[in-house]
Amino acid sequence: MSENVNVASEATIDGRQVSDAQFDAFERALTDRKDTITCAETNTGGFSEYEAIDASGVRYRVRLESRNGKSLREATRAALSP
């Protein structure tokens, strides 16, 4: 693991665990695809999910979730609709 990874928080990019700071920097570099945001409240927290594109045109599905007081954040390379 790199940098300090908060045990109450988990962040991954393409399945690789990263620090919160690394995830934040990665997410800031993405461009949101308009009208792709989905949000829901659940019994244990909630989630937001959206599609985004990096500067090279690679598309990602970004999911931000709160579950039982733990923050789960992931960005997964995906084949998304144009």
Q: Choose one word for the global shape.
A: globular
Strand content: over 45%
- Give the averaged pLDDT, no decimals: 87
The main sheet comes to: 7 strands, mixed
Rg over CA atoms: 13 Å
Which blocks of ≥5 consecutive residues have pLDDT under 50?
1-6
**Helicity, in percent?**
10-25%
Tally of DSSP β-strands? 7
Our count of helices gives: 1
Q: Please give the alpha-carbon distance between the first and last residues.
A: 34 Å
Elements, N to C (H/E): EEHEEEEE
Helix and strand composition category: mainly beta
Could you explain how this protein is built, in words?
The chain is mainly β. 11% of the residues lie in helices and 50% in strands. It contains one helix and seven strands; from the N terminus they run E-E-H-E-E-E-E-E. It has one helix at residues 20-28; strands spanning 9-13, 16-18, 31-32, 38-42, 45-53, 59-67, 70-77. Strands 1, 2, 3, 4, 5, 6 and 7 form a seven-stranded mixed sheet that branches. The termini are far apart. The model is unreliable at 1-6 (pLDDT under 50).
